[in-house]
Specification:
By secondary structure, the chain is an all-alpha fold. The chain has five helices and no strands. Helix 4 runs antiparallel to helix 5.
Length: 112
């Protein structure tokens, strides 16, 4: 079944937005976090085929991170600057299956 041109364009825009949010140099804001939660919710509601390929334990992990992000959003009153790295990792985990895996952030080397 071929994807409609409008649907393909929308998918590409969403994929670019997801990549932007996951970019380590991109500063997160509350709207970005809300967007990703809505994106994931929509994909689950649509029973996206990418999700159907994931194992039940992986889906449980996705849900755990989705819930963690949601709770962080509820409890945070300020920006996400202080926890941006951790939040981006949680977003990558919650959206697992919708994007290519994100390589681990290089660890700071200790002085020798």
């Amino acid at each position: 079944m071929m994807q409609q041109p409008h649907a393909a364009a929308t998918t590409n825009l969403a994929q670019r937005k997801l990549e932007q949010i996951l970019d380590p140099a991109y500063p997160l804001c509350k709207d970005d976090v809300v967007w990703i939660l809505e994106y994931i919710k929509k994909k689950v509601a649509e029973e996206d085929p990418q999700l159907m390929e994931l194992s039940q334990p992986r889906l449980m992990q996705n849900f755990r991170y989705f819930a963690d992000i949601s709770l962080m959003l509820i409890h945070r009153r300020n920006g996400f600057d202080q926890e941006a790295d951790r939040l981006k990792q949680w977003i990558a985990e919650a959206a697992y299956g919708f994007h290519p895996p994100i390589p681990d952030k290089p660890r700071d080397r200790e002085t020798r």
